[in-house]
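Methods — Computational structure assignment.
A single polypeptide chain was analysed. Its primary sequence is given first, followed by the predicted tertiary structure written as structure tokens.
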Amino acid sequence: MLASTQTRIVLHATTFVVWALAASCVSYWVLQLTSNSELGNRVSTATSSEPLNSAADTASMARLLGEIAPQAAAPVNNSNRFSLKGVVSGARGQEAALIAIDDKPAKAFRVGSAVEDGLFLQSATTRKVSLSASPNGPAVMTLEMPPLAN
């Protein structure tokens, strides 16, 4: 008799825990749907008559299922990473610049060569160089040598 009482208590406790978990899951999803009214409206209209076929509906469904939207990255100011140490003049198109990247020792770069991925030395003058996103593209960054000490 004692064993059957203990078995019944364990059975009732297990049943209670399972129903409590099910109720908490339902509560969580109801809160998710009602917290974002736009998402709730999209889901209710999609389930009523239309299939999920647009990009907006797919994005809404992904948010509903827990996808976290990527945060927009802050624009990186690359000009702080580069330091112009010198310019070497030569025949037209043969100029070169000494550029230090990330406080590392300066390296020489000829006009038209890649300084790093996606950044090319476009032009070089006596105290200034221009960097561009492509070998013949418009300048996206200008580096100048520090002023001369008197």
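Note: The radius of gyration is 32 Å.
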